[in-house]
Write a structure and sequence with these properties.
With 226 residues, the protein is of the alpha/beta class. The protein is built from 7 helices and 7 strands, in the order H-H-E-H-E-H-E-E-H-E-H-H-E-E. A 7-stranded mixed beta sheet has the order 3-2-1-4-5-7-6, sandwiched between helices. Helix 2 packs across helix 3.
Length: 226
């Protein structure tokens, strides 16, 4: 690894939730390829709101937890359709799981690397925009991941998580994860608007949280120096 892009000494790996498989290719495709009309409509509305909040994409963009790239692919397509995708933008996706990263590699204009949310391979303030979509709820530790998002962020950070308890209730309504009261087995943290705001305010000076049922989308600015 180039020392210029090495994580700072204070960073530490976070890893995945205990018991979660290291290979999960196809997991994202099952969600974004759902034939359920309600799920499809909610995903489309969420993607549209994300696109509005993200705005023009230019400079260096780091997507932490890119997964199979399906969410970023939708987002970039929507931005491009609106004429707000700078052809000179440098977009990098970070994914913990090798098999998901391999699938995300298909995306044009996106470089994908395997990495941990707790030790991102970028220098301080390297990214004009940082995105972290449906990731924080999966992590054993949220605070160190948020601190890393702030460390590499030079301007804005966009975070999205499930809006609880509505996300779980939606799962129950369609008979998913009934034995777990609708909660996904990989979800370790439940976020309300206040909880998400507090988590981000620990490392950012300004945080705005927007409910986009059944998700929350937060825009954070002013990364705090440790």
């Amino acid at each position: 690894m180039n020392p210029a892009t090495s994580p700072t000494p204070s960073t530490r790996p976070i890893g995945l939730a205990p018991g979660v498989p290291l290979e999960a290719a196809g997991q994202d495709a099952a969600k974004y390829g759902s034939s359920n009309p309600v799920v499809t409509r909610l995903l489309d509305r969420w993607t549209a709101r994300l696109r509005e909040i993200v705005g023009p994409v230019k400079g260096t963009v780091v997507d932490v937890g890119i997964g199979e790239g399906l969410c970023l692919e939708r987002l970039l397509a929507a931005v491009a359709e609106g004429g707000a995708l700078d052809p000179g933008a440098r977009i990098v996706g970070i994914e913990y799981r090798y098999d998901k990263a391999a699938i995300a590699n298909r995306l044009d204009q996106v470089d994908v690397a395997v990495g941990d949310a707790g030790m991102l391979p970028f220098p301080d303030g390297a990214a004009d925009l940082v995105t972290c979509i449906e990731v924080l709820e999966h992590l054993p530790a949220v605070a160190p991941a948020v601190a890393e998002l702030a460390r590499v962020c030079g301007d804005r950070c966009i975070v999205s998580v499930p809006y609880e308890p509505w996300f779980r209730l939606g799962n129950l309504g369609r008979g998913k994860n009934v034995g777990r009261l609708g909660n996904d087995p990989e979800h370790l943290h439940m976020f309300t608007p206040g909880k998400l705001r507090r988590a981000l305010e620990a490392s950012f000076a300004e945080v705005k949280v927007t409910p986009v049922f059944p998700w929350l989308v937060a825009e954070a600015r002013g990364p705090r120096a440790d």
